[in-house]
Every structure is written in structure tokens, then in C-alpha cells.
Design a protein that fits this description.
Layout lengths: L4 E8 L2 E8 L10 H7 L1 H5 L4 E7 L4 E12 L3 E8 L2 H6 L3 E6 L6 E14 L2 E10 L3
Antiparallel strand pairs: 1-2, 3-4, 4-5, 5-6, 6-7, 7-8
């Protein structure tokens, strides 16, 4: 990030591609997603939808996502992270974040696309997984 611009640089197979775009104040990086949810817990718990821009470095752009409370049961609150674009939503399943309902609203599970990629043959592919956290 330089000034009000995000600069992307991605190298694959020895070829480097770059791009840039204006920094949106609602840009949330992968490691900031859960802290973002905690910071905005009251709004999400009231049923509000929150919108962000999420950097996707291999694509050299940010992608719009929205967060909203999907459902809750006796044990947990489920928050969905869904692409804002209908085209991208058709290609990428929503992520479901499962938080403990009582006490500290601890994150229990993440179901969907995860940050690590999976090596398939000689290339790296996106990985959809169920991440279960134990505390």
C-alpha cells in the first residue's frame, strides 16, 4: 500500500504481473477477517450486512464480499462471507464462520475456501476445507 493505492505484484512460472487500484477504506486482508468480525459483532448480531473489499493477490485485484448472520442454534452463531458479485458467487462457495454462542463468542469452525493452497500435480489449486479449531 502506497498512499491511497494498493499495488499488486504476483510472480508465477517466472513471469511477474502487476496492477494497482484505489485503496478502499473497507479493505480487509485474510488475517484481519476474524478481528473484523469481532470489531463489528454488534452490527452483525443485529442482522446488518457488512461489505468489504478482499485482496486476491493472484488476480491482482480486490473482490467485494459481504458478511451477515446466516443462522444460530442453541450452541453457535453462523456468519456467512459471500461474494458481492453474482458472477464470482457462482464460482466461489460462501464461507461459513461458526462462533460459540455464549461467553466470548470464540471461533469454532470455518467452512469453505481457506488461505493455504493444495498442490495437485505440479500446480497449486484453491482448497475448500472444514477448519476446526480446538481451544
Amino acid at each position: 500500500i502506497k498512499g491511497d493505492q494498493i499495488h499488486f505484484e504476483f510472480t508465477s512460472d517466472g513471469k511477474t504481473k502487476t496492477d494497482q487500484e484505489k485503496l478502499d477504506p473497507n479493505t480487509v486482508w485474510a488475517d484481519e477477517v476474524v478481528p473484523f468480525l469481532y470489531k463489528n459483532w454488534a452490527q452483525i448480531n443485529k442482522g446488518e450486512t457488512l461489505s468489504i473489499r478482499f485482496p486476491v493477490v493472484p488476480r491482482r485485484e480486490t473482490v467485494g464480499f459481504k458478511f451477515f448472520k446466516d443462522r444460530e442454534d442453541g450452541q453457535a452463531i453462523y456468519i456467512k462471507m459471500k461474494p458481492s458479485s453474482l458472477v464470482i458467487a457462482a464460482l466461489v462457495k460462501p464461507l461459513i464462520f461458526k462462533f460459540k454462542k455464549d461467553g466470548d463468542f470464540r471461533l469454532i469452525e470455518v467452512d469453505g475456501r481457506v488461505t493455504p493452497k493444495q498442490k495437485v500435480g505440479s500446480s497449486w489449486k484453491d482448497l475448500d476445507a472444514l477448519l476446526v479449531l480446538t481451544h
